[in-house]
Task: structure prediction
Amino acid sequence: MAKNWTSDEIAVLKENIGKKMTPAQVAEQLGKSEMAVRLFCTRHQINIRQPLERPMLTLLLRVKFGEPEYFRPAREFFRRVGISQKRFSALRQGYVQPTEAELRAVCRELKMNHAEYAEFFYQRQLSLFDDMPSDTGSEALGAVLNH
Result:
């Protein structure tokens, strides 16, 4: 017989799933089956996998279209770029990063111009400095200039 989820169990699930623990670990902690945890997440639209901080394909689509949601590829697009629909979905949702070859194929297929390439690579480079403390960059620049 199915047992209802308590608010405490839901809080533990939301706090830990995908970030700290796998569904199996959460299930063990809550005394539920892994399938029960997975089904609860599916029914309540809770992501088991956490998306990446800066997914490159989403960034590329944002540069090209403004809003990535506006881009609705057809089957022919997937054939021409050599990316399956399942892989493209994972790339678009930000669960995995595209390879350089995949990025090149998508850029070529979308017929990106030089200004769009420049904007994309500028945005891509900015992500390198997201985790760096603000004073670290100035210290490094000062060390370079003093030598």
In short: The CA atoms of residues 136 and 142 lie 10 Å apart. The chain has two domains: 7-43, 56-129. Residues 7-43 form one domain. The chain is about 60% helix and 0% strand.
